[in-house]
Amino acid sequence: MLVLLPPSETKSPDGDGAPLDLAALSTPELTPVRERLVGAVVRLAADPPAARAALGLSPAQDVEVARNAALCTSPTKPAIERYTGVLYDALGIRTLTRAQRARADRRLAVGSALLGLVRAGDAIPAYRLSAGSALPGLPTLRALWRPVLGPVLAASGELVVDLRSGAYQALAPVPGAVTVDVLSERPDGSRTVVSHANKAHKGRVARLLATTTAEPDSAVRLRALLRRAGLHVEHDGGTALTLVLPPA
Fold first, then answer.
1. pTM to 2 decimals?
2. Which NCBIfam families match (predicted)?
3. How many domains does the chain have?
């Protein structure tokens, strides 16, 4: 089972690993595009106003531009510890046992606008680049990633659970992947998407899938696993699951 997570805009700034080594990252098929994007991001950071415009940043966020300038020299840490925020707080990677962490490292991967896909243990620096960013002089990120990342994901040979946000799914859709939508049910029975709850519950789903000893191989079996964990999950017969949160 491969569980695809969305990245986060916020990232832990620390690390004690050696500088970024693109050749050491998993999925070497992605190396040429990674090299192209890393080079472009570093060059762009030399012009802070242009970098702000391309990345949608304000002058108060120039620390993000500085991180991009140091992409090739700053310390790294495992990708699953680099990303932060609501989803990653709920995942709680640092609270796992050694055996659970080993399973998580095998199963979890993060979609990345800069690096395409990083496995949990891949050593990466802090950076700033979003799926919707447009880098001067380059095609769109979707045009760059889809031809190389799409085939990699399609050929994984295992059940793919795609928890990425829509913008990152668009970079490289995975045919047949199981998706999970999170809806909050109101007292009147109507349902709505709540961003914070969506991220938190996807983080909890990711934790469950990262640590379970089960190996679901279909949407039906995945739904059964989630329901055994006490979640209200609906399945319409396709590859989309809906996690319904009860009224508060």
1. 0.95
2. PRK02101.2-1 (NF002544)
3. 1
